[in-house]
Amino acid sequence: MVSIGIKQRIPSIYFIGLIALVGCSGSESAKPSSSDAVSPPENPSKLVVALLPDENAATIIQDNAKLAEYLEKTLDKEIELVVTTDYSSMIEAASNGRLDLAYFGPLSYVLAKTKSDLEPFAARLEDGSTSYTSVIIGNVEAGIDQVGDIEGQTVALGDPASTSSRLFPELTLANAGLKSGEHYEAVFLGAHDAVALAVQNGNAQAGGLSRPIFESLVEAGTIDPEKVTVIAESEPIPQYPWTLRADLDPQLKDEIRTAFLALEDDAILGPFEADGFAAMTDGDYDGIRKAADILGLDLGEFVQ
User: Distance between CA 278 and CA 264 in Å, rounded?
Assistant: First the structure.
């Protein structure tokens, strides 16, 4: 996990294990009090803000320094940005009450919700929409230019708890009659960019990842569109939600919601490839639960 307190102004990047986050890195107010039968609302002086580990952790922290500065100024709180080692670690940290705010993927939010009292309050807004898609990409040299070509091949996926780099790619392939373990071999590489690079390098013949991330990799020159082609696109997916601990002070929660919904600074929104953030509720993610049910995925598989 990468953890940076904004007060440090990012003099360096340092890595620590999940146990540090669960045991001591989180908000001091998250520690339970055995003397109180009913805990009062939490209003910590420091907010621990977790960002989704779907790309390089150090880069994520650096790219979101301005978000931390904005929240520190707007909320008058110390802000600590953290990136856990993977989705499961993030879900576990949330379940232990060590994250005050967290930017989840749709599926990882649904999984975290089964263990934690979280409230989704905003989601990424792009071109006026609070949905996005995932894509299946193929290696051009290997001749993978349609879904049927994937049978018998290796398919790279991201994290097992990723919405657009696992759940919806598998759903897209299942709708085409291809099941993981039966018609193709799935390998999990953790991050979206790792998936795209594996397909480009020929280590996997196909892969699934977020369309916005894929397009950003092409735009940055990381992925060569002459070597990798999009062969399928998923149905719309509700955007990544920002969540907060339900036991935070109501006034603080209102201030947090207002801070995100009012965001217009391109320097802050840029890393999210967003125009802004729009209000969202738990019910907006029922489609994720339905997709997992269709694939026969046991939500408990990810949250042991």
Answer: 12
Higher-confidence residue of 301 and 28: namely 301
Scanning the structure block, which residue is given the tokens 């759940």?
Answer: 167
Cα R_g (the chain), whole angstroms = 19
Sheet of 185-188: strand order equals: 185-188, 154-157, 206-210, 134-139, 228-233
- CB burial of 47-70 (b: ≥16 within 10 Å; e: otherwise) equals bbbbbbbbbebeebbebbbbbbeb
Following DSSP, what letter does each residue of 172-188 receive, concatenated?
A: HHHHTT--BTTTBEEEE
Tell me the mean pLDDT in the region 264-284: 94
In this prediction the pTM is 0.73
Question: What's 126's DSSP letter?
Answer: B
Residue 234 CA to residue 170 CA, distance in Å, equals 10
pLDDT tens figures, 177-231: 999 999 999 999 999 999 999 999 999 999 999 998 999 999 999 999 999 999 9
How many other C-beta atoms can be found within 10 angstroms of the C-beta atom of residue 279? 14
Structure-block tokens of residue 183: 């018609």
User: In this structure, which amino acid lies at residue 13?
Assistant: I
pLDDT of residue 297: 79
- How far is it, in rounded angstroms, from Cα 166 to Cα 297? 11
Q: For residue 18, give both structure tokens.
A: 């999940």
